[in-house]
Structures are given as C-alpha cells and as structure tokens.
Amino acid sequence: MQEERSYKDKKVISIGTVSELTGLSVRQIRYYEERQLISPERSSKGTRKYSFSDVERLMNIADLREEGVQTTEILKDIRKKEEKSKNPAQLRKKMLQGQLNAHFQYKHNG
C-alpha cells in the first residue's frame, strides 16, 4: 500500500513559479539542485517539478546564504535533519532515555 503524501510534498510546481515565489533566479534554483540541496522530480517531458516543501526549503537556503552560510554546511544540516526524520522511533527512544537519565540524576543528586 502506497503512503499518501501531504499536499506540501507533491511535486507539481514549475521552476518559473518557484522562482516567482522565492525571489530566486532560475539559475540559482538549478545551482542548488546541482549542489544537492533540493531534489525536484522530472515530468515525462523532462521539466522540473517542485513541491511547497521544496519552496520552503529554498527560502530557508536563500536566508542562510544571505547570512554567509556555505552550501556545503547547508547540505550537512539538511542530511542530519533527514537522517533524524527517517527514524522517529529511535529519536523518541533517545529522547525518553535522556529524560529518564535527567530525572534519575536529579533525584540521586537532589
């Protein structure tokens, strides 16, 4: 059974519309794709299709670039976040373990 994607994740927006929404040039958007910061899908005719999530990511990338953050650092951050979101059960387990450790450490020292 295929998992239903949120409307925010459906790749339906053209690069021209993304450019208008983000204020980025088409060239900048393609550059971010080359740097693997964004991954559009391709239509049967080869045109790029983006999602609303992609638009949000591009706006965040543009903000970070304005602050002087290099694309390599942005990519590292994106990969970290993607890795965490892939295994939410493991993340919950780590968070719970941290809470238990903090609780018992506090009781033991308090």
What does this structure look like?
With 110 residues, the chain is mainly alpha-helical. It has a single domain (8-109), classed as Multidrug-efflux Transporter Regulator, Chain: A, Domain 2, CATH 1.10.1660. The protein is built from 5 helices and 2 strands. The longest helix has 22 residues, at 88-109. It is elongated. 11% of the residues are buried.
Task: Name the descriptors.
two-stranded antiparallel sheet, 64% helix, elongated, 5 helices, 110 residues
Mean pLDDT: 85
- Which topology does CATH recognise? Multidrug-efflux Transporter Regulator, Chain: A, Domain 2
| Number of alpha- plus pi-helical segments | 5
CATH architecture: Orthogonal Bundle
Helix content: 55-70%
Question: Rounded to an integer, what's the Rg over CA atoms?
Answer: 19 Å
Count of structural domains: 1
Shape type = elongated
Protein name: MerR family transcriptional regulator
Keywords: DNA-binding, Repressor, Transcription, Transcription regulation
Pfam families: MerR_1
InterPro entries: DNA-bd_dom_put_sf, MerR-type_HTH_dom, MerR_fam
Helix/strand layout:
Layout: H1 15-22, H2 26-34, E1 41-42, E2 48-49, H3 52-66, H4 71-86, H5 88-109
Antiparallel strand pairs: 1-2
Concise summary:
The chain has 110 residues and is mainly alpha-helical. The chain contains 5 helices and 2 strands; from the N terminus they run H-H-E-E-H-H-H. The protein has a two-stranded antiparallel sheet.
